[in-house]
């Protein structure tokens, strides 16, 4: 018999719990990346990583938060790798991922998805975790690996950006996401 | 953009954001997930 005799009741419980969060992982990944195919690849990779690491998961804790963190870390790894294969230097990619960007009011778009993709990456992640996925600030900070105050700040800025883009003035200048204005 | 739920004190985009998120949550899993599900069904290391 193959190794599947090791498929224990705990594994089965884990599998079912993991399956239940896949739709949420897809939504989070779609929001982060804005690319459906890439998002689904991210989810599958994250699910495999979670499955492989299932012994480190404590039953009864927050599977959604745990897997979101796995997906998020994998996404950042993929971003860094893709940035290395382009003209951007690694430092630029890193700044794009972690900086506290202060973009100008970019585009006037009525489409939520477009507006979301125009947020600075860490703000997009924050508003997805808090405003869409329904995590608490504490949970979101844990997932993103940042202090709660930072998470609150990112969410506030994302909200302001979205309000400006979706409800604000018709400014049509597209600014690069990685722009830092000080 | 109308809010996805009846939270009266929030901006319209906040409901739109949840609506966008929930629209993906409500999608059926695509065929590309079948192999993944089989691997997890098998119980081995995927």
Primary descriptors:
heterodimer; A: 182 residues; mainly alpha; Rna Polymerase Sigma Factor, Chain: A; Arc Repressor Mutant, subunit A; 2 domains; 8 helices; 0% strand; disordered N terminus; disordered C terminus; B: 46 residues; 2 helices; sigma factor (chain A); transcription regulation (chain A); DNA binding (chain A)
Write a short abstract of this structure.
The complex is a heterodimer of chains A (182) and B (46). Chain A has 182 residues and is mostly helical.
* Average pLDDT metric of chain B: 74
Mean pLDDT of chain A: 79
Q: What's the shape of chain A?
A: globular
Return the CATH topology of the largest domain in chain A. Answer: Arc Repressor Mutant, subunit A
Biggest interface pair, counts? A-B, 40 and 30 residues
Name the helicity range of chain B. Answer: 40-55%
Radius of gyration from the alpha-carbon trace of chain A, in angstroms: 18 Å
How many extended strands of chain B?
Answer: 0
The helix fraction of chain A, in percent, is: 55-70%
Assembly form of the protein: heterodimer
- In one word, what is the shape of chain B? rod-shaped
Spans of chain B of 5+ residues with little confidence (pLDDT < 50)? 1-6
**What are the secondary-structure elements of chain B, in order, as H or E?**
HH
Number of domains of chain A: 2
Compute the CA-based radius of gyration of chain B: 17 Å
Strand-residue fraction of chain A?
Answer: under 5%
Which residues of chain A sit in consecutive blocks of at least 5 with pLDDT less than 50?
A: 1-5, 87-93, 95-110, 169-182
Number of strands of chain A: 0
Under the CATH scheme, which architecture of the largest domain in chain A would be assigned?
A: Orthogonal Bundle
């Amino acid at each position: 018999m193959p190794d599947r005799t090791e498929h224990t009741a705990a594994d089965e419980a884990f599998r079912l719990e993991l399956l239940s969060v896949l739709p949420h992982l897809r939504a989070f990944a779609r929001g982060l990346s804005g690319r459906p195919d890439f998002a689904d690849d991210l989810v599958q990779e994250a699910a495999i990583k979670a499955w492989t690491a299932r012994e480190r998961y404590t039953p009864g804790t927050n599977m959604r938060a745990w897997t979101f963190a796995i997906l998020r870390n994998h996404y950042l790894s993929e971003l860094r790798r893709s940035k290395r294969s382009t003209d951007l230097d690694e430092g630029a990619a890193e700044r794009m991922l972690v900086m506290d960007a202060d973009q100008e009011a970019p585009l006037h778009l009525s489409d939520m998805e477009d507006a979301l993709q125009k947020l600075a990456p860490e703000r997009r992640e924050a508003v997805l975790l808090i405003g869409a996925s329904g995590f608490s600030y504490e949970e979101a900070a844990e997932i993103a690996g940042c202090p709660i105050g930072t998470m609150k700040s990112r969410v506030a800025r994302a909200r302001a950006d979205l309000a400006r883009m979706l409800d604000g003035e018709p400014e049509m200048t597209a600014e690069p996401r990685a722009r830092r204005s000080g | 953009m109308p809010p996805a739920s009846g939270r009266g004190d929030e901006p319209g985009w906040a409901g739109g954001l949840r609506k966008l998120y929930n629209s993906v949550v409500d999608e059926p899993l695509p065929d590309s997930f079948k192999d993944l599900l089989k691997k997890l069904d098998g119980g081995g290391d995927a």
